[in-house]
Design brief:
This protein has about 190 residues and is an alpha/beta fold. It has a single domain (about 30-185), classed as 3-Layer(aba) Sandwich (Rossmann fold). About 20% of the residues lie in helices and about 35% in strands. The chain contains three helices and ten strands, in the order E-E-H-E-H-E-E-E-H-E-E-E-E. A six-stranded mixed β-sheet has the order 5-4-3-6-7-8, with helices on both faces. Strands 1-2-10-9 form a four-stranded antiparallel β-sheet. A hairpin with a 2-residue loop joins strand 1 (about 10-15) and strand 2 (about 15-25). The relative contact order is 0.20.
């Protein structure tokens, strides 16, 4: 997927937290539709459980489930993995799932894979509940030399290793509502 020239893109916010648009909503929509097509082909007859990772997944998950449009269930899990607003720390379970996963096909829905720590934690935790299968779909995956623990099976787009907001992603619980993806403007 082609990235937007962030030097000339629209900006939001004010210094010290001003953001430039990286990926517009129409490119995001195309990536969601492509992921939905793949998931529909792979899970149409399996009645999967889409397991969303709160809070960031909610916009992507809603768009994805509508686009997949197959019989499915929905549940949510919540982790805490930040020491401060921008750095990863230890992963802790805040809210566990409600559904019984034994023998079920689980599609874990994440907004972004940053280091892979959360994904590794979630895979171990959910596999202990004996699902028939477990895969992960992530709208964004940061481009890194090495992810700590895991890689998503379904990826919307790979992005540079930059701090981003929008399309469900936040900074200090703000900016989730933006329909585009924005990157922190370091040239302010």
């Amino acid at each position: 997927m082609e990235l937007i020239d962030t030097m000339t893109a629209e900006c939001v916010g004010k210094p010290p937290y001003r953001f430039r648009r990286m990926i517009p909503q129409d490119h995001i929509r195309q990536a969601v539709d492509k992921l939905a097509e793949q998931l529909r082909a792979d899970y149409a007859d399996k009645n999967p459980i889409f397991m969303g990772v709160l809070n960031g997944c909610f916009i992507f998950m809603a768009d994805l489930i509508r686009a997949v449009n197959i019989p499915c269930e929905v549940d949510f899990i919540k982790l805490s993995s930040y020491r401060d607003a921008m750095t990863s720390g230890d992963v802790n379970l805040v809210k566990d799932i409600d559904a019984n996963l034994v023998g079920r096909h689980v599609i874990l829905v994440e907004d972004i894979v940053d280091t892979g720590k959360s994904l590794g934690f979630l895979r171990r935790h959910l596999m202990s509940k004996k699902p028939a299968s477990l895969v992960m779909v992530s709208m964004f995956v940061k481009e890194r030399d090495k992810l700590d623990d895991a890689v998503a099976e379904y990826v919307g787009t790979i992005i540079p290793d930059e701090f981003v907001v929008g399309y469900g992603l936040d900074y200090a619980q703000q900016w989730r509502q933006l329909p585009d993806l924005y990157v922190l403007d370091k040239d302010q």
